[in-house]
Structure formats: C-alpha cells, structure tokens
C-alpha cells in the first residue's frame, strides 16, 4: 500500500507566489495541491471543503491577514500551518508571533525569482511540508486570544549594555509559567548549556527559557537554524519574556551566567575558554557546513572547551545537524539531554542523538527546563 499523498492548500495574495509554490510542491509525487486562496477569508471558506493536511499561509494579505487567519484555523479546524514570510525584521517578528499562535514552521519568502527557483529553496519547501504533515495529530486546538506581552513602562529605559547582563532586571512573571528554582545544598558541576534546535524550535526554546530562573549559574549558547534577519528579533522577543537575559551573540563576546546567547543567523558560533574567560567566536567557517549556524560547531566547541562541565540539549529539528558535535561533547565527559519524539514538531535532530545512544536523558519539552537546571548539579 503506497504512502498517503499530502493535500496542501496554498494561501497568498500574490498570484505569482501562489503559482510558484504550487509548481514547486507538485514536483513531488507525494504532494497534491487541492486548492489555493488569495486571502484569509477565502482560505477559511475552503478548508472545511478541501480538508488539506497542510496549509501554507502568507502573512500580509488584504481582507484578513495571516495572523488572524491562523487563529481561526487553530480554533476551528487545527492542522499543520507553514507560514511564508518576508525576510525582514518586521517579517521575523510577525512570524515568531505566528508560531506562538500555533504555526508549526515557516519558510522565508525568497527575495527574487531566481532565489525562489533555486534547488535548495524548492527542496526546503518540500521537506518542510512533508515534515509538518507527519505531525497533523500533534496540532492542538488553541483559543483565539492574543498571547501574553509583558507590559511596557510609559517611558521605557534603554536596553542594558552587555556589561550589565550579570545582574538583569527580571521580566514580569507570567502566571501560567512555573520558574524552576535552583537546587539548594548541592555543588555545581556544570558551567555551560549548549542548545541545538531547528524546525519547530522557537516555541520550544521559549518554553524552556521562560521557565529558567534569573540567577541561573551558567550561560546558554543556542544554535537555532534561522535566516540572518530573524535571530535578533527572536532574541529580543525572548528577552522581553524571560527572567534570564537573551541576546544575539557578538564575535569576541565573553559569556556571562544568566544570559542566553543566540547565534546570528547565517553564521557559525563556537565557544573557547582561556584563563577562565569563556569567549564566543562568530565566523563563516566552515563554509561547507549545510546549516548556519551549525549545531555541530556549537555543541562540539562546548565539548572541547569545557568537557565534563558542559551540558548539551538537542531539541526539535529536521535532519541530523548536531550529532557530530554531540559525539565530541560526550567523548569529553559532557552530559546530553534530548527532546522526546512525542513533543517534537520534527523528530530528526534528537532522533539522531538518541539512535546513537548518546542521550543521557530523553525528556518531554515541558520537563526540559527543570532537567537543565538539575543537570548543572548532577
């Protein structure tokens, strides 16, 4: 019996973009375009009639924009949604909000016809549609409400400088988030947390970081596969929500406890240690690495620099980026946590670690923050 064909509804106000996405997707025999819509209202009318397995959804559309449409989909007929967003700061901010609303992943809209028709972009779109389609049963019904945004002061103070990150001003505490306390009466045995994550990552990273205490006695370094224009808004959004500080990493920066550093999109990040100074290095090398930033580079450097004092975390993501870095971390005595299949949007990167018997613990995403804090002490 053959594999079930994935039914896709393409939603975009641009006829050119609709046609382009449809042509690309139908190059794969496992995908069938069941319809297209030029705006959110038309999409909502078609979904119950066509019952698509996946919806690709533009953000900026007339009559009903993508975010409003997404909320209706998640409330009335939840299913995997792949956002198609502009490669811009504004596009990044809206896309990250869409993932809080329930979108499973996104595709950065190419900036030219040539880019759109590149083999890499075509394959990325096909792979992402196939990946999210497998998680149709994973999509939960979400109420139509605006996600929590911390209140802003009437005259907000300027953002603290890097030097002030050691003593951050805590963000407002959400009533629905339990902050994990530091253990008492235990000696700390690990000094660094290194996270590798890709498809479906932003909500997973948000869930973890918002639950960590502001006095976390270790820095966090994160390789999230993202376009260059997305990582700073991603870090700034998290910073507004978390007790710890979150920022986009800079080359030559010395890391501080209680701060999470997001690798800049499109570039690799490594960490080194010299005379007790833990320093970040941002680089285009190795150019041969398929993913930038590479989880292999980040986690491998953590293993080389800190050995048994490094704690690695592998979260949801397509492919197997990170597995070589995890081998280095484990060979040097580090500890490794991996996200469970049941809670991954795409069970690729954690699966590679688990299948290689390199995971010390396999955890649901709801339990990961507590395991990270505990892992610094045991």
SSE blueprint:
Layout: E1 6-11, H1 15-25, E2 31-37, H2 40-50, E3 54-58, H3 66-76, E4 81-86, H4 89-101, E5 105-109, H5 113-116, H6 119-133, E6 192-197, H7 201-209, E7 220-224, H8 228-239, E8 245-248, E9 259-262, E10 268-274, E11 277-283, H9 295-306, E12 310-314, H10 323-331, E13 335-339, H11 349-355, E14 361-363, H12 365-375
Parallel strand pairs: 1-2, 1-3, 3-4, 4-5, 6-7, 6-12, 7-9, 8-9, 12-13, 13-14
Antiparallel strand pairs: 10-11
Helix pairs in contact: 2-3, 3-4, 4-8, 7-12, 9-10
Quick overview of this protein structure:
It is built from twelve helices and 14 strands. The chain has 378 residues and is of the alpha/beta class.
CATH class of the largest domain: Alpha Beta
Overall average residue pLDDT: 87
Helix coverage percent of residues? 25-40%
Per CATH, the architecture of the largest domain is 3-Layer(aba) Sandwich
User: Could you name the CATH topology of the largest domain?
Assistant: Rossmann fold
Low-confidence stretches: 146-168
For the biggest sheet, the summary is: 7 strands, parallel
Task: Give me the number of helical elements.
Answer: 12
- Shape, please? elongated
Estimated share of beta-strand residues? 15-25%
DSSP, total strands? 14
End-to-end CA span: 49 Å
Number of domains: 2
The ordered H/E elements are EHEHEHEHEHHEHEHEEEEHEHEHEH
**What is the CATH homology-level superfamily of the largest domain?**
Methylesterase CheB, C-terminal domain
| Rg over alpha carbons | 21 Å
> Reading side by side through the largest sheet, how are the strands ordered?
8-9-7-6-12-13-14
- Structural class, from helix and strand content? alpha/beta
